[in-house]
TrEMBL record:
One protein family per Pfam: MORN
Record-level GO cellular component terms: motile cilium
Keywords: Cell projection, Cilium, Flagellum, Repeat
UniProt-recorded name of the protein: MORN repeat-containing protein 5
Localisation per UniProt entry: Cell projection, Cilium, Flagellum
PANTHER family referenced in this protein's UniProt entry, alphabetically: MORN REPEAT-CONTAINING PROTEIN 5
Gene from which the chain derives: Morn5
Lineage, top ranks: Eukaryota, Metazoa, Chordata, Craniata, Vertebrata
InterPro entries: MORN, Morn5
Cell wall biogenesis/degradation found in the keyword field: no
Gene3D superfamilies (UniProt xref): Histone H3 K4-specific methyltransferase SET7/9 N-terminal domain
Amino acid sequence: RMEGPGSYALATGTEYRGALRDGLFEGRGTLVFPGGGSFCAVWHRGRPTEGKYTFADGLEYKDKKWHYCDGYDRRFYTEICSGLKPGGISQLTNLDPPRKIPDGCYDCGDGFYNPETRVIVDYRLRFLRNA
């Protein structure tokens, strides 16, 4: 079984980097997700005992007193860090500058959906899946 410091790639594209003991996550280690987010934790027998999730843009999740994008403040994280845009310039996602969306297509988060072809392609226009 895996033992000591190392990394382990899961079939989902997620990677674990940290300590392993008897084939399980043990001690300090980080899960790095394909979208860029990460979960840094202290693990015991493969389960996290404490940890912190950080989104791809650097926003850190807090399980208590979480005020991001609540009913009183609907700003994106980039707007909180950099300020609001002038009137008439809308920010529709957390990305600044936003991705270019092809005409007639919709942003799905991992690619673009084209309702005419019913196909979703990634941001490099490579096929992802049929809708």
